[in-house]
Amino acid sequence: MRLLLARHGQSLWNEVRKFQGANDVGLSDLGRTQAAALGSALRSGYRVAAAYVSPMCRARDTAEIALKGTGIPLTAIHELRELSLGEWEGFTVDEVRSREGNPYLTWVRSPLDYPPPGGEPLPDVCARVLQAIDRIAANHRNGEDVLVVAHGGVISVYLCHLLGISFNSLWRMRIDNCSLTIARPPRLVSVNDTAHLPPMQGTRWFEVSEAGDQPVGVPPSTRVVSAGPASAPGIETPRIVASVVEGGTPTGRSPASDTERAQ
After folding, report:
1. Among all residues, which ones are annotated catalytic?
2. Run of H or E residues at 148
């Protein structure tokens, strides 16, 4: 099975950088345009046999727009819903960042250790996402292309699992609206392909660089081209080997800077 993992298009709350998490927020006009562009990429480059989607309307509407007229079956799976951000939901990034001690920055640096108050624990998110992926895989054992339309948090948690890295690295992986990330479990093939999206102003990702420990030499738009587990000589524990290239920005698009993604 080849998993085509797509994040939903820009939502109305993404547009104003507001944390949405478990809130069921619809797409913006730009989000609908992004979804249509995703559909064009899927039709021209892949043979999608089936599609699975988060039940949240921003993901469901993205899938419906992208797959319009294809006849591809679409199945909602509750376990693919976005992670809850607890007490931060409904507030903007700037509002959370302005609180005493800047809890936003602490969370960006260590989301596993310092979750939002009342937020869903990342190991719990991972467990339900893996249940969903296992269920999908059981239905597609012959190498088909399978589309999964979900959320930035869900996709990032799954990538941490595939790479065997801590959930504290969650926001070091950039997942843009309507980007495509491809996996052949347990191998990660590519991350955050946005070449199909229309030119637009640069979006902003969570401000890992503000924490002062941005990995040297890794630009915000870096894409993992291939990644998979490998054994290191003399080391019993598996390590991860990844090949990366510097990701360019599509024609007419400004290079992306630091933050956006309030799921």
Report:
1. 8, 82
2. strand 145-150
